[in-house]
């Protein structure tokens, strides 16, 4: 299954705020173009082409075990402080296409009603930055939008993460678009420039873990004080991968995030129950399964993974929560790699618990 990301590229008409303390004008001008397919939706960050068609399309493509249509996956990070990147900088347009797009934005901003004083000066400085080589510390200016180097590199711009709920964070990559030569790394001051690690975090965010339902014996309906066995077969409890990749002329990165199941935690849905083991944490077996399937003749045994209810559920049910913990790691371009916070995925199952009926003679 393959799905290409739903993104929105944002370029800024910004002033030299550190130098002159002037106004920042943020213009979300470059929108992704969704294209439907049987495998989900594709979004391209695009804005014009030349005769070769190679200087305008940049995309992040997700493949493997990922949510459909560029949606957020079902993994919950075990680390409450970890979040995917809210935005990043990525290749956007070649010089000719960028000139066409950015110059139009500058002219539109300059002609807006009431555009005088400091805002007008900011727009003038932005125009001079791209047309007349006006630069500042660590940020050189450009001559005629670098058109003389068209095909030798690309302008990079900020990209919002559409799954980031915080508007300010999502729109925090507001530096002016900057040029990067083909085969070169972005200038070091752009710490949010796309990297394999950022791609790995995005693959994590889009990862879709299997919605495995724990097998119970007795199934669905059990008895008070009767141990209920719980298990997951190896075939239903396996490693999954999600890959994120980006490619542009002279630039390509990829990262694969792998989720490996390591444990199952049972929460009976009532305090009037005990779990096996007592912690409720069922560890993975050597063969990749969890727990042990119930077999005839084991009624008097304590299950290695399971639960025992101490009272009936009456006319209702107990919500047995089965939470699987997944160990997350990633590898990427150039031998990069590392660990990401463990992920969890929770399934609820309704369990009916009945009293054991006795016959009085």
Walkthrough of the structure:
A hairpin with a 4-residue loop joins strand 19 and strand 20 (337-354). With 361 residues, the protein is mainly beta. The model is unreliable at 1-57 (pLDDT under 50). It has helices spanning 17-20, 95-110, 117-131, 167-170, 196-206, and strands spanning 2-4, 8-13, 25-37, 40-45, 59-64, 76-77, 87-93, 153-160, 178-181, 215-217, 221-223, 228-232, 240-248, 251-267, 273-276, 281-283, 290-291, 306-309, 318-332, 337-354. The protein starts with a strand and ends in a 7-residue tail after the last strand. It is built from five helices and 20 strands.
Q: What's this, in brief?
A:
The chain has helices spanning 17-20, 95-110, 117-131, 167-170, 196-206; strands at residues 2-4, 8-13, 25-37, 40-45, 59-64, 76-77, 87-93, 153-160, 178-181, 215-217, 221-223, 228-232, 240-248, 251-267, 273-276, 281-283, 290-291, 306-309, 318-332, 337-354. With 361 residues, the chain is mostly beta strands.
């Amino acid at each position: 299954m393959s799905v290409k990301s739903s993104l929105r590229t944002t370029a800024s008409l910004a002033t030299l705020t550190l130098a002159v303390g002037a106004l920042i004008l943020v213009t979300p001008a470059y929108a992704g173009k969704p294209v439907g397919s049987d495998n989900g939706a594709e979004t391209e960050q695009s804005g014009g082409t030349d005769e070769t068609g190679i200087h305008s399309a940049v995309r992040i493509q997700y493949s493997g075990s990922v949510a459909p249509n560029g949606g957020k996956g079902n993994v919950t990070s075990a680390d409450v402080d970890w979040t995917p990147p809210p935005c990043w900088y990525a290749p956007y347009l070649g010089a000719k296409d960028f000139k066409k797009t950015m110059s139009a934005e500058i002219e539109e901003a300059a002609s807006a009603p009431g555009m005088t004083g400091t805002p007008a000066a900011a727009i003038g400085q932005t125009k001079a930055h791209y047309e007349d080589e006006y630069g500042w510390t660590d940020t050189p200016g450009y001559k005629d939008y670098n058109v003389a180097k068209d095909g030798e590199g690309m302008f990079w711009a900020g990209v919002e993460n559409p799954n980031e709920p915080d508007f300010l964070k999502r729109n925090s990559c507001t530096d002016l678009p900057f040029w990067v030569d083909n085969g070169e790394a972005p200038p070091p001051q752009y710490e949010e420039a796309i990297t394999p690690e950022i791609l790995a975090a995005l693959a994590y965010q889009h990862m879709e873990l299997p919605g495995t339902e724990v097998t119970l014996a007795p199934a669905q309906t059990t008895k008070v004080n009767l141990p209920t066995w719980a298990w997951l077969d190896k075939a239903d409890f396996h490693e999954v991968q999600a890959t994120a990749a980006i490619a542009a002329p002279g630039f390509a990165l990829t990262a694969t995030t792998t989720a490996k199941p390591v444990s199952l935690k049972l929460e009976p849905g009532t305090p009037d129950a005990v779990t096996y083991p007592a912690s409720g944490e069922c560890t993975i077996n050597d063969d990749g399964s969890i727990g042990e399937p119930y077999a005839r003749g084991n009624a008097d045994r304590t299950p290695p993974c399971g639960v025992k209810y101490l009272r009936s559920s009456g006319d209702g049910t107990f919500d047995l929560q089965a939470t699987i913990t997944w160990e997350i790691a990633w590898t990427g371009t150039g031998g990069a790699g590392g660990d990401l916070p463990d992920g969890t995925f929770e399934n609820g199952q309704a369990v009916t618990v009945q009293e054991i009926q006795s016959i009085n003679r």
